[in-house]
Amino acid sequence: MRISELKQKEVINGSDCKRLGFVGDVDFDLYNGTMTALIVPGPGSFCGFLGREKEYVIPFCDICQVGDDIILVKVRSDEVEENCKF
What we know:
Layout: H1 3-6, E1 10-13, E2 18-22, E3 25-29, E4 34-41, E5 55-59, E6 63-66, E7 70-73, H2 77-83
Parallel strand pairs: 1-7
Antiparallel strand pairs: 1-2, 3-4, 4-5, 6-7
């Protein structure tokens, strides 16, 4: 699978069935050549004028399943908020 194919998939949290958004970027470990996390841009702020408030960083170990249209992850809501970059 290519990174461009991942960017077309929507990320859904299996814990609370909440849509997190589409994959925006992928984090790699350059030494091992492995994918370490998915980065999903957060919701826009104030009608999109001020950019995005945060982004979700989802560790690779939290990915449950990659389907044709969605990526199912299993993280608690408070963990998602802790992993957000402001």
